[in-house]
Design brief:
It contains 4 helices and 2 strands, in the order αβαβαα. Helices cover 43% and strands 8% of the residues. Helix 2 links the parallel strand 1 and strand 2. It has 126 residues and is mainly alpha-helical. Strands 1-2 form a two-stranded parallel ribbon. The longest helix has 19 residues.
């Protein structure tokens, strides 16, 4: 058995793009395989690392035998950010009567992610 632990590269400006994180993970898997041979390799991703791990498995399924995803979201980063933005608006005084919709260019994406044509932001229970 072998374990290789690494974290995403340091941020130079803003977040490290998920595609770059995935490329780095592929390089790490290649290095692990170079050292230990052709053994089953899984990826363990925590939080945003789970998105990068999932991207690697989707891009290069021949490299990854399994995934362990912890503290991750079941939706895309974009859907999670839309949800977070909506919650922040609600927390800062925008209520049920202050209906709003996302910018026109993102309406189609919103509908696909939400699975509905209703774009109203509503306060969630709890």
């Amino acid at each position: 058995m072998a374990v290789l632990r690494f974290d995403r590269r340091p941020r130079e400006q803003g977040d490290v793009p998920f595609a770059v994180q995935a490329d780095d993970a592929v390089a790490a898997v290649a290095e692990l395989r170079r050292r230990v041979g052709d053994v089953p390799v899984g990826l363990w991703g925590w939080s945003q690392g789970a998105w990068a791990a999932s991207a690697v498995a989707a891009r290069r399924p021949e490299l990854i035998a399994f995934l362990v995803l912890v503290a991750t979201s079941g939706v895309s980063p974009a859907a999670q950010m839309r949800y977070g933005t909506a919650q922040q608006l609600l927390l800062h005084g925008y209520g049920e009567s202050d209906e709003w919709t996302p910018a026109e260019e993102s309406v189609a994406v919103w509908r696909r992610a939400a699975g509905t044509d209703d774009l109203t932001v509503r306060r969630l229970a709890g």
